[in-house]
Amino acid sequence: MNRRLRLIALLMALLAAAGAAWVFAAARPAPSATNAALEIRWHGNGIILQGAVRDAATQRALVDGATARLGGEADQVVDWLDIVPTALPVADAASLAGLIRIGQEGWHLQRRAAEGWLAVQSPGDAQSTQASELLQRAFGPGVAIRVVPLP
Asked: What is the mean pLDDT of the chain?
């Protein structure tokens, strides 16, 4: 019976992750070729960094933040970041790395040209508020930040 409960819990977690991915995919506009998006996902005791950044220093800061969040487990960080000079700007890479460090299982960040979305379990809690502040510093005042509940 215990095995069945674990299997059901695993299936529920997979369905929730698929639902979150679908919500983000349906809600976002197609990225332009000159402004590649940035996406960060916390899951399965790992962190996925995907998209584009403008320079190697930003890439290194994000990878280091993810590695620190995982207790030094660099092999659990998936770095699919391209360095593209025309990528969306990151005003403060240290703030974005800080967000990565406080992120929780299931969180999902997407950055587009004029907005950033962060899906979290509890949008109104203190950790989500801190995350929103870090995102605003990371992306700058010209980027609208939305913290939304995971489906």
From this structure: 86
99 vs 131: CA distance, rounded Å: 6
Sequence-ordered list of residues with C-beta below 8 angstroms from that of 124, at least 6 positions apart, any chain: none
What pTM value is reported for the model? 0.75
104, 95, 38, 89: which is closest to 61 by C-alpha?
95
Mean pLDDT of 3-25: 60
Torsion angle of alpha carbons 140, 65, 79, 30, nearest 10°? -20
Amino acid at 137: R
pLDDT in tens, 39-88: 999 998 899 999 999 999 999 999 999 999 999 999 999 999 999 999 99
DSSP conformation class of 29: P
Query: Strand order in 108-111's β-sheet?
Result: 77-83, 46-53, 38-43, 108-111, 115-120, 144-149
Does the structure show a pLDDT above 80 at 126?
yes
